[in-house]
Amino acid sequence: MTNEPYEHPAMPARPELLGTQLFDLTGRVALITGGGRGLGQTFAVALAAAGADVVVSSRTSAEIDAVAAEVRAMGRRAEAITCDVTDEASVEALVTETVARMGHLDILVNNAGMNIRKPILEISLEEWTRVLDTNLKGYFLAGRAAGRVFVGQGHGKVINIGSIFSHTALPSQGPYASSKGAILQLTKVMALEWVKNGVQVNLLSPGYFETEMTSPVYNDPVRKAFIEDRTPYGRWGQPHELAGSLLFLASHASDYVTGQSLLVDGGYNAW
Ligand SMILES: NC(=O)c1ccc[n+]([C@@H]2O[C@H](COP(=O)([O-])OP(=O)(O)OC[C@H]3O[C@@H](n4cnc5c(N)ncnc54)[C@H](OP(=O)(O)O)[C@@H]3O)[C@@H](O)[C@H]2O)c1
Questions:
Q1: pTM as predicted
Q2: Which of 86, 158, 178, 261 could form a disulfide with 203 if both were Cys (CB 3.0 to 4.6 A apart)?
Q3: Is 112 helix (H, G, I), strand (E, B) or coil?
C-alpha cells in the first residue's frame, strides 16, 4: 500500500453525535482562500450559518472586507486578511495571522482559483504558469501551512475545491484541467499522509456555477446552452447548492471520509 512505514490512526468514532449535531461548527475556525466573491463568498456564509468563525482571504481588500462584514452581521467572528496564494511568504503569513487573531484553525477551504481558456497551441508559457501557480502551487502552499497546524493539534479538515475538470476535460481547458486533475492527486496524498493525525482531506468538485470566473461562458448563449445540454439537470448550478456538501466535508458528518472527490455537478459526470 505504501513505500513508507505506515501507522494506523487511533481516531475515535463519534456515535453520540446525531442529526444536525453532526454538522454543527460552533467554535470552529474556517479559513477560505478566494473568499471575496463567487463560490468563496457562498462558502463563508454557509460555514458561518453552521456556527463557524471565518477568516476570508484574497488579494482584494474591499471584497474580503465586505464578506467579513456579512459574516459578522450573522453574529460570528470574522477577519479579512489579504494574501496572494502564489507567494509562499504571503501564505505562511496568512495562516500564522489567522491563528494569532482567532486562537486556532480547524477548517481550510482551498478555493482561490483562476482559468485561462485557450487551445494548447495558443497558450503561452506565462499563461500556463499563472494558472498552475494559482490552482496547484497555491493549494499546496495553503494546504501545507494549514496542515502543519492540523497535524500538530490532531484534527482538521481540508476541503480542496476541485472541478468536473478534476475528472474530465474539454478543449481549451489545458492548464485548468491539468491543475484540477493534479489537485485530485494532491488531495489523496495529503489525506494519506495526515490520516493518522485525525485530519481529513477531500475534494469538493463543482460543475458549472455562474460566477465571475465562468462569466465568459455564461454570457455566450452558444456556450451556455452547450453546458445546459451536457448537464443532466438541464441547467447551471446555483452557488447555494454547494453549501450542503461543503458543510458535510467541513464537519463531524464526514469524519470517516478522506481522500475523496465529491462531485456536485447536476449529473454532468454521470454520462
Ligand atoms: N464557478 C464555477 O462554475 C466553478 C466550477 C468548478 C470549480 N470552481 C472553482 O471554485 C473556485 C472559486 O471559483 P469562482 O468561480 O468563485 O471564481 P471567482 O468568482 O473568479 O473567484 C475567485 C477568487 O479567487 C481569488 N484569487 C484568484 N487568484 C488569487 C491569488 N493568486 N491569491 C489569492 N486569491 C486569489 C479571487 O480574488 P482576487 O482576484 O481578488 O485575489 C476571488 O476571490 C476556484 O478554485 C474554481 O476553479 C468554480
A1: 0.97
A2: 261
A3: coil
Q: Which amino acid is at 92?
A: E
- Within 8 A by CB and 6+ apart from 30, the residues are 44, 47, 52, 53, 54, 55, 106, 107, 108, 109, 250
- What average pLDDT score do residues 29-52 get? 98
* Centre of ligand 1 from the C-alpha of residue 77, in Å: 23
Q: Which residues pair with 190 in a beta bridge?
A: none
Residue 233 has pLDDT above 70, yes or no: yes
Cell of 203: 475534494
Please check whether residue 72 is in contact with residue 106, taking contact to mean a CB–CB distance below 8 angstroms: no
* DSSP calls for 23-62: G--TT-EEEEETTTSHHHHHHHHHHHHTT-EEEEEES-HH
Which residue's CA lies nearest to atom 21 of ligand 1? 38
The closest of 114, 153, 158 to 132, measured between CA atoms, is 114
The domains found in the chain, sorted by start residue, are 23-265 (3.40.50.720)
